[in-house]
Amino acid sequence: MNRRIRLPNQPLVRHLILAVLAGLGFWLLTSNLGSFRDFEIGEIATYAIVVAGLSVLTGVNGQISLGHGAFMAIGAYTFAYLQMHSSMPLVVELIAAVAAAAVLGLIVGIPATRLKGPYLAGMTLILALGIPQLADKYNSVFGGDQGLTTLPPNPPGSVDPQRWLSWIEILGALIVMVLLANLLRSRFGRSMRAVRDNEIAASLAGIHVPRTKVLAFVVSAGCAGLAGAFLGLSTGIVNTGEFALTLSIYLLAGMVLGGAGTLVGAWWGGVVLVFLPQWSSSLSKDFSLGSSASANLAVVIYGLVLIVVMMLAPGGIQGGIRWLGQRLASRGGRGTSRPTPVATGAGSSQEPDTGALATSNTERTSP
Amino acid sequence: MTQFFDLTLNGISAGMIYAAVALGLVLIWRATRIVNFAQGSMAMFTTYMAVALLDRKVGYWLAFVCALLIGLVMGALVEVVLIKPLQGKPELNPVIVTLGLLILLEGVIGSIFGVQNRGFPAAFSQSGLTVGSTQISFSHFDVFILVAVLVLMLAILVLFRGTNVGLRMRAAAFAPESARLAGVRVNRVLVLGWALAALAGSLAGLLVAPTAAFSPNYMDLILVYAFTAAVVGGLDSPLGGLIGGLLTGLALSYVGGYLGSSLEPLGAAAILIVVLMIRPEGIFSRTAARRV
Amino acid sequence: MLEVENLSVSYGAVRALDGVSFTASPGRITAVLGANGAGKTTLLRTISGLVRPQHGRVRLDQKDLTLLAAEDVVRTGVAHVPEGRGVIDELTVEDNLRLGSLWRRDRADNRLALDEVYELFPPLAERRRRAGSTLSGGERQMLAIGRALMSRPRVLLLDEPSLGLAPRITAQIMAMLGELTHGSELTVVLVEQNARSALSVAGWAVVVHLGRIVVQDHSEVIGSDEGLRHHYLGF
Question: What pLDDT is stored for residue A14 in this prediction?
Fold first, then answer.
């Protein structure tokens, strides 16, 4: 592809520049939109964080998790608990939320190293159902059905509190993206892909397979923890109802639709997770559906999204965009008849790919 | 002591339910190496079909049988429409598709019937039987659960061991290519396998509905308990599923009784992790090694 | 008469068969010989419908088998004994055998076929209730051939029946194949790396190398060509 503007080759610098540009874009966007739109943009950033983490785990490393809702719950409760019982700075509380979720990720990740796809899916599914129930069990600590409340952060000067919150969330998301992007370009990133493609070959190549898999779980859970804390912060309340099994499955849907294994796809996932419920409620108004139907339309759509995307376009939105880009490039290209041997996930591919979920590579790349 | 006795009886009754759902998981796993995460919600769907019939004043037993038949057809449809096209794709794809089906069905039923808890009738009295002068925690309905699941298991055993269809199913599950070379139409056999699995699940759904908080997600927990049971039993062995179901039912009944019911899911997680770490091939599986 | 016409098969970029043509006649064994990777197994898998060819045709007595699925090819009378034998370990010997005739409606004749197989292979009769996994290598080969015979085939495709067997047992199997074919209407296509023992029973031999047929002729002619033996047959 011929880009007019050359970005530096140094990955960190490159990613930082992209993040700063994105940050500027968001700043302009939020400054020109109303408070409610700011709230939505902040939510998108929040969901992008958790979907990106899930995407790294599933798309890049090949481990599925149906329990990311539980990791978010851990982060949210830790954060809210610290807010109520201590007076630490916000950043410290957020880091604590990340740490708590990462520790749970470690606990889950260790047995997960020995489990293949469906078994891991089953185990994490149980956690998604089981962990939120702890909050009911120990309701004196976790507030039972009522849950815990969080305090909105104080904006400096005359900044709109909602806008300030969105900025915090966006900043957090951009930091996470830069860190993840660097991680994926690092040796660890290559190890994760190698482990996904073939564990035996990876271990023969000197990669410590269990360590790689556990670390992927820890990183991914940490992202979920941060997103959980942000979610608690923006809704003002943390209770178990928010972290039902369906949340974990929605996150999966967001990842699959956005494009598993890509960080840009995670933003698409965030957009879907924030707007799909709105679209579905306006849709049900248009068709004047009954209250039960309109309350469940989003659930139905999520289910359809998972099935249809998986069966017809496992690369998701980002996979489709990339495919389109390749087609245009090869049509307009100066006879570059490279037979598109795109990303089998082997080591050096520029960007993370969708190997774990895609169809066979030939099917994916041939137009 | 009486509490222990009661919990044991409850555990047996619950275990039979898990065993029936686990049987469905095992049938599908053996044939296609897929864990059907929609097994529970498919059962939920057919049970709500029974509700629809009951609401229209159809008799209980007719509704019961219709629901089972709907389950049978639905299992076959799911195989043909959703599972067959996934042959040869990465193993995460069917996991995600069956999860999609899980929430799709919950959403569809929720939109039609609402998500609030509602009642589902039991075929027999649910008050405890009286043995001697004491009332025990095992009702006529629990007896029915026990008998119904055992009859189902026996029927499937006879089908597998005693009929040509069963021979085809076993051959297709163990060695699909050899089966094809011997003239077995493996694709049709797989459809039948999914249909039978959905039938087993539907039976469990109908049996557990009167005792559960009956709403569109009432099978979620039962599915994961049945998955635990199936893994304990080896995921490959229908008999292992029965024993695994009983063990899981008992263990979770004790956990719920002594530690609180909200710890049951984590109890199941603990069982699952311990079994997978120590004996990944399951406790009752005959096949020695299994790649987990 | 089994006719293979200009058959080509590719796995992705790898061409496994390249324009292979030969004819296997009833009443004799046609040996397909060649080194590992010559495409012999692919040839049998394509005939039996497990692999789709890119070009070419397979015909049995003028009936086109090329686009039939494996489970339908067997119904035309082509029985394939795969490499590694395809015995189903978890099933009993008798169930393995019965499986081979399940698609045939004539129950009385199936019964008869079972008795004939037990007569042909007495060790199987003694172990009819044992699981396939308990058999020795030679017994497994007998079981695999027995299951193929249960369908009363007109064509028998055998993939490396001597693989992993002691020379004495290989000789027994070859002799048995000779008896089965001689004076009958059975067509046998025998894929072998062990060219010497295959040539001892075959009437016609096809030598394959890297997916192409190098030469085909009467087996005595092939067996007496020293250059050919050195180059392609390894003895």
Answer: 79
DSSP string across A46-98 = HHHHHHHHHHIIIIIT----S-HHHHHHHHHHHHHHHHHH----HHHHHHHHH
Locate B165 and state its tokens: 């269809």
A89 touches chain B (CB under 8 A): no
Nearest alpha-carbon partner for A172 in A245, A86, A270, A243: A270
Per residue in C8-55, pLDDT (tens digit) is: 998 888 888 999 999 999 999 999 998 888 888 999 999 999 999 999
In this prediction, residue A205 carries a pLDDT of: 87
Give me A71's structure tokens: 């990791």
Q: How far is C-alpha A100 from the chain's CA centre? A: 18
d(CA A212, CA A191): 7
**Cα dihedral C204, C208, C211, C212 in deg (nearest 10):** -80
In 3D, which of B268, B285, B281, B266 has the Cα closest to residue B226? B268
pLDDT above 80 (res A12)? no
CB C120 within 8 A of CB C176: yes
How far apart (Å, rounded) are the C-alpha atoms in residues A7 and C68?
55
Of residues B93, B110, B113, nearest to A299 (C-beta): B110
pLDDT of residue C48: 93
Q: Is C87 on the interface with B (CB under 8 A)?
A: yes
Residues in contact with C202: Cβ distance below 8 Å, sequence separation at least 6, in sequence order = C28, C29, C30, C31, C190, C219
Q: Which residues contact B159 (CB under 8 A, 6 or more apart)?
A: B165, B166, B169, B196
> By CA distance, what is B169's nearest residue in C?
C99
| Spatial separation of the C-alpha atoms in residues A42 and A230, rounded to whole Å | 9
Quote the tokens at residue B13. Answer: 């009754």
Mutate to test the interface with B, among A125, A199, A246 (most CBs of B within 10 A): A125
* A302 interaction partners in chain B (CB closer than 8 Å): 100, 103-104, 107
**Minimal CA–CA distance to C17: which of C6, C27, C28?**
C6
Least confident of A112-116, A261-265, B14-18, B268-272: A112-116
Write out residues 50-79 of A within 8 Å (CB-CB) of B. Answer: 58, 62, 64, 66
Closest-CA residue in chain A for B83? A311
pTM, entire model: 0.85
CB contact under 8 A, C102 and B178: no
Please give the pLDDT value at position B113. Answer: 92
Residues of A in contact with B34 (CB under 8 A): 118
- Answer yes or no: are the C-beta atoms of C173 and C165 closer than 8 Å: yes
Determine contact, residues A316/A354, Cβ cutoff 8 Å.
Answer: yes
3-state secondary structure of A260: coil
- The yes-or-no verdict on residue B249 having pLDDT over 90 is yes
Long-range contacts of B210-214 (CB under 8 A, 24+ apart): B210/B119, B210/B120, B210/B121, B210/B122, B210/B126, B210/B141, B211/B122, B211/B126, B211/B141, B213/B117, B214/B47, B214/B117, B214/B118, B214/B119, B214/B120
What DSSP element (H or E) covers B140?
A: helix B140-162
pLDDT at position B112 over 50: yes
Nearest chain B Cα distance for residue C69, angstroms: 9
Residue B231 one-letter amino acid: V
ipTM for the predicted complex: 0.90
Give tens-digit pLDDT for A57-66. Answer: 998 998 999 9
What is d(CA A273, CA A258) in angstroms, rounded to the nearest whole number?
Answer: 10
Read off the pLDDT of each residue in C179-201 and give the average, rounded to a whole number: 89
Inter-chain touch A295–B272, beta carbons under 8 Å? no
A147-171 burial, b if ≥16 CB within 10 A, otherwise e? Answer: bbebeeeeeeeeeeebbbbbbbbbe
* Residue of B37, B41, B92 to mutate for A, most A C-beta atoms under 10 A: B92
Scanning B76-115 for CB atoms below 8 A from A yields 82, 85-86, 88-93, 95-97, 99-108, 110-115
